[in-house]
Amino acid sequence: MQVTETFKDDLLLDTVRMRHLLPDISDRRGKIARLLKSGELIPLRRGLYASRRNIDVLGLAGPLYGPSYISFETALARHGLIPERVTETLSATTRRGGVFTNEFGCFRYLPVAKAVYPVGIRLVTTSDLPFLLASPTKALCDRIAREAGFRSMVDVAKWLEDMRVDSETKLDRNELQMCAANYGRPAVRLLEQFALKKGCVQ
Hints:
By secondary structure, the chain is of the alpha+beta class. It has helices spanning about 5, 15-20, 30-40, 60-65, 70-80, 135-145, 155-165, 175-185, 185-200, and strands at about 10-15, 40-45, 50, 70, 90-95, 100, 105-110, 120-125, 130-135.
């Protein structure tokens, strides 16, 4: 039996789905182990598998650990706000942080406050696996919120320069205001003040 035939409509499979697709196999664990050994299934984490390798890694982040959405440097790079290539897939979650490493790479999850979680996230459906992605404004707020010791807009300006954030970036006024009001982090409030002063909002 080939996975490409049995699981052709399933990019991701968990143990419940495997029970449904392999109902007549007594040694289901053994069968899964053989499929993993042959490379027909790729392990993502315990109880979750991929059926092929050419999958957009961003689409794997949500199923691996949720609720979560792609953010921080991963989202900033995807939006073209920073030039660096990001080696990890970084996501925000309302749960405890975590890290998963598998054949597709390293997936890191960083906690954000529940009050700001729903702000500025969009569903991307152009990937083979849809995923939630932070807007440029939300990703920037998520990232700067992790910085401590910000006391003035000078700190914000230096941080943006060090991050090499595109100076032409326009931030969403409403998202910025909601993040500044609900994050409870000085760095986010200073980012809002900086963006308003510099006219970097729309």
